[in-house]
Design a protein that fits this description.
2 domains, Fructose-1,6-Bisphosphatase, Chain A, domain 1, binds 6-O-phosphono-alpha-D-fructofuranose, alpha+beta, D-Maltodextrin-Binding Protein, domain 2, five-stranded mixed β-sheet
């Protein structure tokens, strides 16, 4: 059970520990929470309000956009552009930076987000989510910041979180002081603190990877997965379980709840195409890495800490190996031995 602490109350109480806090950050987080409530309602209604299916367009990634990709992106923009907390936003669904319109005051934060991660699942009613990351706007923010303002390492994030639109809608949030989970009580329209101080077990016997890419994997990843599949009779001496939801938010949430390792690694096919991974650094890799590390887990490209990667573009991709610390470290060690 819970004591009824709302996410608004929790954020305000967190603010009290921050020297010189002005309430700006708290108000920004609450605007993000509002956007996630609106998206939850939209996703839950689905075909009842005609929001499923393809929008007939492509995003900057060359991926076919779902109607919900575009609609949820608009929800995030409308909820966060007006209050004067942000200098600009960047989204998976927008080619370029979205500067705060001149009619609104400009603030000191930058917001990156994937408004509906895993959206290919919406048409088949499988869990999807929203991922967001908050950075400080570097230098003078009165001017319209360009993409270069966003190109900060993940260690510079001041907050990160996600909403998971699953059997229940949950928000998971870190401001650098641990990870806390909130469940939406739709009857009162409030997120309630249900999972305080979330931590990831250091060990796991559950791995998540898209096995259809097996023929492209690099040797260290192949070695790790083969050892898991060998089970009790293999070098690990334990049987392993496998999951793949094709929705990063759902995978990360499962790992926060019971441990696990999630991998979308660099592979030979990506290298042949000159890409650095499948998932995007600024609004998938970095926010999820901050959450995982704050919960005691680890997040690596396989070769370096994700949050230390210096971004070179808004939509840069990154290999991702994250979750239970001891398993991530094992995969990293296999890369070192390779
Ligand atoms: P695949 C969703 O499109 C996403 O960005 C992540 O949420 C998810 O983990 C991954 O891509 C799924 O990729 O290749 O299995 O469709």
């Amino acid at each position: 059970m819970h004591n009824g602490t709302t996410i608004t109350q929790f954020i305000i109480e967190e603010q009290r520990h921050i020297e010189g806090a002005t309430g700006d950050f708290t108000s920004l987080l609450n605007d993000i929470v509002t956007a996630c409530k609106v998206i939850s309602n939209m996703v839950n209604k689905g075909e009842l309000i005609g929001v499923l299916g393809s929008a007939g367009s492509e995003n900057v990634q060359g991926e076919t956009q779902k109607k919900l990709d575009i609609l949820t992106n608009e929800v995030f923009i409308k909820s966060n552009e007006w209050a004067g907390h942000l200098a600009a936003m960047a989204s998976e669904e927008m080619d370029d930076v979205y500067p705060i319109p001149d009619k609104y005051p400009r603030g000191k934060y930058l917001l990156t987000f994937d408004p509906l991660d895993g959206s290919s699942n919406t048409d088949v009613n499988v869990s999807v989510g929203t991922i967001f990351s908050i950075l400080k706007c570097p230098g003078e923010c009165s001017a319209r910041p360009g993409a270069e303002g966003f190109l900060q390492a993940g260690t510079e994030q001041v907050a990160a979180g996600y909403a998971l639109y699953g059997p229940s809608t949950m928000m998971v949030l870190t401001t650098g002081n641990g990870v806390n989970g909130f469940t939406l009580d739709a009857d009162i329209g409030e997120f309630i603190l249900t999972n305080p101080n979330m931590t990831i077990p250091a060990d796991t016997r559950e791995f998540a990877i898209n096995a259809s890419n097996m023929r492209h994997w690099e040797a260290p990843v192949k070695r790790y997965v083969d050892e898991c599949l060998a089970g009790k009779t293999g070098p690990r001496g334990e049987d392993f379980n496998m999951r793949w939801v094709a929705s990063m938010v759902a995978e990360v949430h499962r790992i926060l709840m019971r441990g696990g390792i999630f991998m979308y690694p660099l592979d030979e096919k990506m290298k042949a195409k000159g890409t650095e991974g499948k998932l995007r650094l600024l609004y998938e890799g970095n926010p999820m890495s901050m959450i995982v590390e704050q919960a005691g887990g680890a997040a690596s490209t396989g070769r370096e800490r994700i949050m230390e990667v210096k971004p070179n573009g808004l939509h840069q991709r990154v290999p991702v190996v994250l979750g239970s610390k001891n398993e991530v470290e094992r995969v990293v060690s296999y890369h070192k031995e390779d």
